[in-house]
Description:
The protein is mostly helical. The protein has one domain (15-55). It contains 1 helix and no strands. Residues 18-55 form the I-kappa-kinase-beta NEMO binding domain. InterPro entries: IKKbetaNEMObind. Keywords: Kinase, Transferase. This is Inhibitor of nuclear factor kappa-B kinase subunit alpha.
Amino acid sequence: EHDHSLSCVVTPQDGDTSAQMIEENLNCLGHLSTIIHEANEEQGNSMMNLDWSWLTE
């Protein structure tokens, strides 16, 4: 179980530039893609660890 906090909804504050917001959103996307990648890897591993021997009988 990975405990990733998805607290990356960016709300514009007074004085924040759009460039800063874009940068934060890109950071958020990076975290999300990492989470998705890890989830896919875990799923793939569990698929490979199943008993497939019945297929070769």
